[in-house]
Design a protein that fits this description.
The protein has 13 helices and eleven strands. A six-stranded mixed sheet has the order 3-2-4-7-6-8, sandwiched between helices. The chain has a three-stranded mixed sheet with strand order 1-9-10, with helices on one face. Strand 2, helix 1 and strand 3 form a beta-alpha-beta unit. Helix 8 packs antiparallel against helix 9. The longest helix has 31 residues. It has 396 residues and is α/β, with parallel strands linked by helices.
Length: 396
């Protein structure tokens, strides 16, 4: 669904977590046609190849020509844009995205002549009979990446692709995530993403390399080599950011890659905490067996329960993440007991040579985080029971 609010500063809202399924005509996919070309090579790719990939990932069918009578989204290749714009325009027939009055993306509906839209785009003429969306004033609530912002539209500079690369990378970033991902390695991960794209590396390759470091971290934790484990673990955590950004920035997303990446993300944390507990004896600061059991039950059980709470919240409230309900939920997501904040606690404990204290603190923090999310689920459910809306603060 696409929602417009206000004339001067409309809010566009895409609701849904999977690939966009465009309207069809005689079971045909919505076409995507690129007008013109540019010698610019963002992320080492030709602009037509890159935009075709992005369009295909969103469910559109790249075409060598716009077929009269069939619905088509037409794009000006002198500009680069956030894929969120393509998704929004694809969901809104008879719409045009403009910059300074110049058409950049046009959704020509079935039965309307595409030649007129192509001619207007080539001559920079206005399209008066289309619903205009001004890229310089519109905002978009992008549910998939948990943020609301003004998506970028930039003219391509053949001599300097970095502004488009940076804008594309930032657009691929989740607006609500943990403090390390959001602030600490955002900049180095950009350079790694750009290097990987120019080297022709696939997101699945980066995920596979990250998985090796993930296993290495498990081994080092298991034998009490905590500093080595933390170092290899942090490499994995950075690569876990890079693979997703690389997929979005180059249009190389795939269902298998999504399962591969998120499967590792979901499964490995309990194994890391188990290995950390096992390595305490080798390090020289073992916990009593009963303490170890209690701590691991709290951490692993709390991790599973927290994931279940998040799943129940999403199912109950139309796919909305619990972390974007109200602003306090987004703020708590920065430090909630997930892998990255937990690693901050554990590394801090190494500074005083007490990894056992770190594991105990992670257990307490996991319990506190679980209580917080359980209370938030109960509060949202109670509000819904009273007939009051439960909406994300990002939609305000």
């Amino acid at each position: 669904m696409l929602e417009m609010k206000g004339r001067s500063k409309p809010l566009l809202r895409w609701v849904g977590r999977g690939p966009y399924s465009p309207p069809s005509m005689d079971q045909e996919k919505l076409l995507f046609f690129a007008v013109g070309d540019s010698p610019a090579r963002p992320f080492g790719m030709g602009v037509r190849e890159r935009t075709a990939r992005i369009a295909r990932n969103l469910g559109l069918e790249p075409a060598d020509a716009a077929v009269e009578g069939l619905p088509v989204v037409i794009a000006d290749m002198e500009y680069a844009w956030d894929p969120a714009w393509l998704k929004a325009i694809a969901a809104r027939p008879n719409s045009v995205l403009t910059v300074g009055g110049r058409p950049v993306l046009v959704h020509v509906p079935a039965g309307k002549k595409s030649a007129a839209a192509i001619e207007a785009m080539q001559s920079n003429a206005a399209l008066a009979d289309y619903d205009g969306i001004d890229a310089e004033t519109a905002e978009l609530n992008y549910a998939e990446l948990r943020k609301r912002e003004r998506p970028f539209v930039l003219a391509l500079d053949p001599d300097d692709a970095e502004p488009v690369e940076r804008a594309s990378y930032d657009a691929a970033y989740k607006g609500v995530t943990d403090i390390l991902t959001l602030y600490l390695w955002r900049k180095p991960a950009f350079y790694l993403t750009r290097w990987a794209a120019r080297a022709g590396l696939s997101p699945n390759f980066i995920t596979a390399v990250g998985a090796i470091f993930c296993l290495a971290a498990f081994y080092h934790f298991w034998v009490g080599e905590y500093w080595l484990g933390s170092a290899t673990g942090f490499v994995f955590m950075v690569l876990d950011t890079v693979d997703g950004k690389l997929a979005r920035c180059t249009g190389a997303s795939s269902k298998w890659g999504n399962v591969f990446d998120h499967g590792i993300d979901l499964i490995h944390p309990p194994f890391w905490w188990w290995a950390w507990a096992h390595g305490l004896a080798a390090y020289g600061t073992p916990l009593e067996p009963i303490e170890t059991s209690m701590v691991l039950w709290a951490i692993i059980g709390g991790y599973i329960l927290q994931r279940l709470i998040e799943g129940v919240f999403m199912r109950r409230f139309g796919g909305m993440h619990i972390h974007v309900w109200e602003k306090i939920d987004s703020q708590f997501r920065l430090i909630t007991a997930r892998r990255n904040p937990n690693m901050v606690i554990l590394v801090a404990s190494l500074l005083v040579a007490r990894p056992d204290w770190g594991l105990i603190l992670v257990a307490f923090w996991t319990v506190i985080s679980c209580i917080f999310h359980a209370v938030r689920l109960a509060q949202a459910s109670e509000r819904a029971a009273r007939g009051q809306p439960v909406r994300s603060w990002l939609e305000a």
